[in-house]
Structures are given as structure tokens and as C-alpha cells.
């Protein structure tokens, strides 16, 4: 993909237009702000700069341009983000020649070619049985085509032989997950005698497959097999059907999660098109967060049979609640799955999906039906069934309403319910304290990081001021990213004797080829850009004083460094004292006094 395509897309799509399709932006001086979609926060720290055509979050330190935003928001790589934004901008991209691209594109080419191969196999005589099975499940020809379903013939090498003829290497075919290598080194097709369901990322690009053994097939093999984890396929971050349902999820402000691929397709057929499924795994926290980008309302239509399954489902519901989702549960007639409902009567599934119950109400009603609310021991059991649901609910108003409801149902004073919650909090206090300790340990690191970032931003904000603060600044940058950026700035200054805005742009272009040590998805050019963005936003405040900000950063960083050196000296003094080394002890104590004197001079 040529740089000219990137520039053309950027000229046609503004940062505020792209981000505004996902977030509600508010005016903030020259910039726009919103709550960050990449981490939980109550006060907006996510800023968009129309002037610079970039975004940055001051809470999680993520930032970049329209491409990095879409990549992170939609879970795409650069090529897919480029395609998505090209479609929005109406820019025609050159067709990808997979043979001349890197490994990732080769794998995508293999999966795409395999999909077309499987689709053709479904239409020929050998695929007749698979086609009849799909039609027997109630799926229409239109839906089979829409979801690009296929059939893998029961052959050890039919697909791999076909792919090799297309120019793909055995290594890449294996890397795409289309073949398997056994202990003796023999390579054979992974999917054989199976109905194939292509799995797409949100942009519509196929990255893998889910498959079902043909009815009457070899029962010794697994009923369902999915593509393994590959360079392009991460099952914990992909939701089956999301590429087709995302628009409807936004429109209906609700996402329905079903059990399997056929349930998704049948649901679409019935007109319930705000639906997704996981890909051979329980719902992950990453998938919940992906859904949350489109809606806060998540409704589950999952099989509730079996004690182990119930425990797993409950954990999933609680995870979604802890992420701030409003969670509901769909109960279908006779416990039928959506596909069976649709086959019998599409209206049955449609009505069931609209009449979901809040997860708390579902578990409370279930507990009340099992136990006697008049019996003291049973009251405890009822409370135990719903207590985690209440605690995991992140909305305090909703949590309070649930607590009152359980109080009324059990005929127990609300003060008793609150006391029980306090006891639960105390039992988890040790773990909470550990988490707080971990956070506190990071505070110093974060403070130092932010001070270094601010100093770098100040240098970029007014390059003409750089010579006045040039001496001994290199020692202040202990973070590898900032040290690398500063080294480029210092090198430029030493070569020319001056430092100006034009030099800064040249440095950014040079840094664009270097990957961030802290965040591999960013380049050092965007790290420098976000540092500058932070100072620009701060400069709009009335009390902003450039010289004072520079002085504060330098003194605070020197104070941190001196305190670290003091700690090291103190440890050495203790060691020298234990070893009764009077000469070394005197030397170290003199160094300690010198450091203390230096530290006193850094006080603001």
C-alpha cells in the first residue's frame, strides 16, 4: 500500500470525523475531548486535535492518527484499517498481490483462497450432503451465501495441493493453520469431511475457520474444530458475525451473544441481526470490551444445562457486569437454541430475544424457586446465589436497587444486607491491599515517566528555548523511549548549533521508523507527538508559565534521581557498617552528605 493512499485518505477524512463516529466529542479550547474508550474513566482525558490531526489519552498514554485509532478501536492490523478507512473515504486501493507481500499478508491470502475452495466444494456433488444438512437446519440459500459457508472434502491433501498450485509455500500453509504436522513430520489437511464457517475480523477479512464434523462422520474426532492461534487469528479477540452485526448492534443499542455459528446465521435469518458468538472459547474480557465499543447492553442466549456449564456461564455474566455492561439473559421455550427456534417459528426467537431478563432477576427468581425464603438457612443460600451478581454490578444506583430487592424478598433489614456486604469486603481486603501496593509502587515510576514526557513536550513546544536548558538534560531521561528521542534532538543541536520547528518535523519523520520500547504498536514519532500534544493542551490554561514548567520538570526529575542515589548509598552504608569497614564507611557518609546538599538545592 503506497504512502500516497495514506495521504489521500487523510486528506479526505478528518480525525474529528473518524473518532466522532465512535465517541461523543465535546469542545475543549482548540481541541475536542471525550472519555477514553481504551480504559475506564469518569473524567474525560481523551483529547483530539483537529489542528494536528491526532489523538492522545492522558490517562493511558495511547495516541496517534486516524489509522492507529481505528486499529486499536476495531482490533485491526494496519492493512485492514487502511482498507476500512479507504472505503469510508472513497479511495481506491491497489489490489493486494499476496505473493509479493509479507508473512501476514501471505497467511491472509491462504485463508481467503481456502475459503473460496471450500465454497466451491459445497456446490459440487461431494458437498451435497453438507448442503442438505445446512438446509435441514432451516438455513436459506441466501444465508448460506451471505456467511460464505463451505465444505472440506474428506481428503488428506486436497486443499494443500490446491494451495501449492496457487503458489503458496508449505510453511505458510502450516502457519495459516490450514494443515497439521504430526510427530513423524507428515503434513496433512486440518479440516476433512467438515462443514466450514469462515471467521472474519470486524473489517470483514477472513482470518480463520470454525468447522463441524458431518453428521455420521468419524465420531472419534472432535465435533467442532477451529483454526488454532496464528499470526492472523486470535480467537480470544474475535466474535463470529460481528463484521455483519456491528451496525445493527449500534442501531439497537444491544448485543445478543449466542452459542454457535448456526445460531448466529439463523438469528440473522429471523431478523434478529444484532447477534454474535464466540469462536470455540468462553467469552473473554477482550471480547466484552470489543462489544462495549458498540453498546453497554449485552444479552446472553446460552445453554444453561449442566452444573459445570452453569458455573462457567455465571463467571461470564459477572465478568461482563464488572466491565460496566448491563447484562440480560434470554430464556427460549423448552430451552431450545436459537437455530431450533428459528426453524420451528422465527417469531418465537424474535419474541424471546426482546423479552430478556436482567441477570440479577434471573438468578434471584431461580434461587427463590429452589429454596424456602421463610427458612433461615435457605435465606442464606438465596443470598449466596445473588451476592456476587450485586457486588460485580459496577453501577452504584443499580447495585443499591438490587440490595433493596433482596432485602424485601428475604424480609431482612437493609442494614443486615449492608453488613453482609461489609463482611465480604473485609474478606477480600488482603487482595485489595496487594493491588493497592502494586499501584503505589507504580506511582513513582508513572510520576517520573510523566515528568520526562512533559520535559520532552516542552522542548518540542518551544525549540528556541532549548539552548537555555541544554546542559545535563540527557541524564534526566531514564525511560528508553524518551532517551532515544532526546538523543536525536541533542544530535541535531550539536550538528547545527540551533534547534527550530523545521528540525523537529525532520526528527519526527526519522523517529517514525523506530518502534516504541514501551508500546510496540507505537513509533517514536507518535510518542514525541503525544508529548507535544500534552503541553499544547496544558498551555491553554491561564496559569501556564513556560519557564516555570521547564524549571519544575528539571528540578523534580533531579530530585527523583538524587533520592534513588541516596537509597543506594544508604544500603551501602549499612553493608559497610556490618562489615566494620571504617574507611569505606567514612567515604560513603561523605557522599551521602554531598547528595543531601544537592537534594536541598532542588527543592522548589
Kindly describe this structure.
About 4% of the residues have low confidence. Helix 14 crosses helix 15, helix 16 runs antiparallel to helix 17 and helix 17 runs antiparallel to helix 18. Helices cover 56% and strands 10% of the residues. It folds into five domains: 87 residues, Zinc finger, CHC2-typedomain (DNA Primase, Chain A); 136 residues, DNA primase DNAg catalytic core, N-terminal domain, CATH 3.90.980.10; 114 residues, 3-Layer(aba) Sandwich (Dna Topoisomerase Vi A Subunit, Chain: A, domain 2), CATH 3.40.1360.10; 64 residues, Pheromone ER-1; 157 residues, DNAb Helicase, Chain A (Orthogonal Bundle). The strands form four sheets. Strands 1-2-3-4-5 form a five-stranded antiparallel sheet, with helices on both faces. A five-stranded mixed sheet has the order 13-12-14-15-16, with helices on both faces. With 604 residues, the protein is α+β, with helices and mostly antiparallel strands. The two termini are 52 Å apart. It has 25 helices and 16 strands. A hairpin with a 5-residue loop joins strand 7 and strand 8.
Amino acid at each position: 500500500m503506497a504512502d500516497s493512499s495514506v495521504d489521500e485518505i487523510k486528506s479526505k477524512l478528518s480525525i474529528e470525523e473518524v473518532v466522532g463516529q465512535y465517541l461523543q466529542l465535546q469542545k475543549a479550547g482548540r481541541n475536542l475531548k471525550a472519555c477514553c474508550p481504551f480504559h475506564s474513566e469518569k473524567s474525560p482525558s481523551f483529547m483530539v486535535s483537529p489542528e494536528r490531526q491526532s489523538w492522545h489519552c492522558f490517562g493511558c498514554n495511547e495516541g496517534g492518527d486516524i489509522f492507529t485509532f481505528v486499529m486499536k478501536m476495531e482490533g485491526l492490523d494496519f492493512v485492514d484499517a487502511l482498507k476500512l478507512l479507504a472505503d469510508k473515504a472513497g479511495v481506491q486501493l491497489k489490489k493486494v498481490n499476496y505473493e509479493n507481500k509479507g508473512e501476514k499478508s501471505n497467511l491472509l491470502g491462504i485463508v481467503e483462497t481456502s475459503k473460496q475452495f471450500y465454497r466451491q466444494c459445497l456446490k459440487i456433488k461431494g458437498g451435497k450432503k453438507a448442503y442438505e444438512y445446512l438446509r435441514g437446519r432451516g438455513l436459506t440459500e441466501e444465508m448460506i451465501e451471505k456467511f460464505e459457508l463451505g465444505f472440506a472434502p474428506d481428503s488428506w491433501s486436497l486443499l494443500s495441493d490446491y494451495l501449492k498450485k496457487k503458489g503458496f509455500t508449505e510453511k505458510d500453509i502450516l502457519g495459516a493453520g490450514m494443515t497439521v504436522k504430526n510427530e513423524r513430520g507428515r503434513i496433512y489437511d486440518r479440516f476433512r469431511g467438515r462443514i466450514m464457517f469462515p471467521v472474519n475480523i470486524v473489517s470483514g477479512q477472513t482470518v480463520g475457520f470454525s468447522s463441524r464434523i458431518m453428521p455420521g462422520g468419524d465420531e472419534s474426532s472432535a465435533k467442532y474444530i477451529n483454526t488454532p492461534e496464528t499470526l492472523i487469528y486470535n480467537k480470544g479477540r474475535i466474535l463470529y458475525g460481528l463484521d455483519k452485526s456491528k451496525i445493527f448492534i449500534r442501531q439497537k443499542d444491544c448485543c445478543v451473544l449466542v452459542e454457535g455459528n448456526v445460531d448466529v446465521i439463523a438469528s440473522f435469518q429471523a431478523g434478529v441481526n444484532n447477534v454474535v458468538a464466540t469462536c470455540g472459547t468462553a467469552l473473554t474480557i477482550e471480547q466484552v470490551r470489543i462489544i462495549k465499543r458498540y453498546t453497554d447492553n449485552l444479552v446472553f442466549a446460552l445453554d444453561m444445562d449442566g452444573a459445570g456449564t452453569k458455573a462457567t456461564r455465571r463467571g461470564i455474566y459477572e465478568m461482563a457486569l464488572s466491565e460496566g455492561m448491563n447484562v440480560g439473559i434470554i430464556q427460549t421455550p423448552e430451552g431450545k437454541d436459537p437455530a431450533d427456534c428459528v426453524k420451528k417459528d422465527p417469531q418465537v426467537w424474535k419474541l424471546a430475544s426482546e423479552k430478556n431478563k436482567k441477570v440479577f432477576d434471573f438468578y434471584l427468581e431461580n434461587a427463590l424457586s429452589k429454596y424456602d425464603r421463610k427458612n433461615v438457612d435457605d435465606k442464606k443460600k438465596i443470598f449466596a446465589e445473588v451476592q456476587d451478581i450485586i457486588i460485580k454490578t459496577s453501577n452504584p444506583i443499580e447495585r443499591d436497587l438490587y440490595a433493596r430487592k433482596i432485602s424485601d424478598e428475604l424480609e431482612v433489614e437493609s442494614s443486615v444486607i449492608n453488613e453482609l456486604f461489609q463482611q465480604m469486603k473485609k474478606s477480600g481486603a488482603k487482595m485489595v491491599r496487594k493491588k493497592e501496593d502494586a499501584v503505589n509502587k507504580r506511582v513513582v515510576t508513572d510520576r517520573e515517566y510523566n515528568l520526562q514526557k512533559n520535559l520532552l513536550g516542552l522542548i518540542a513546544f518551544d525549540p528556541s528555548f532549548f539552548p537555555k536548558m541544554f546542559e545535563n538534560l540527557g541524564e534526566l531521561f531514564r525511560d528508553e523511549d524518551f532517551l532515544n528521542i532526546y538523543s536525536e534532538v541533542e544530535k541535531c543541536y550539536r550538528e547545527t548549533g540551533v534547534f527550530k520547528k523545521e528540525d523537529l518535523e525532520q526528527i519526527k519523520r526519522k523517529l517514525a521508523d523506530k518502534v516504541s520500547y514501551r508500546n510496540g504498536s507505537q513509533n517514536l514519532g507518535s510518542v514525541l507527538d503525544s508529548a507535544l500534544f500534552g503541553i499544547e493542551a496544558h498551555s491553554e490554561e491561564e496559569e501556564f508559565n513556560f519557564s516555570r514548567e521547564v524549571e519544575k520538570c528539571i528540578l523534580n526529575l533531579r530530585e527523583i534521581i538524587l533520592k534513588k542515589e541516596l537509597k543506594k548509598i544508604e544500603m551501602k552504608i549499612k553493608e559497610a557498617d556490618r562489615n566494620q569497614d571504617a574507611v569505606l564507611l567514612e567515604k560513603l557518609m561523605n557522599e551521602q552528605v554531598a547528595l543531601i546538599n544537592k537534594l536541598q538545592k532542588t527543592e522548589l
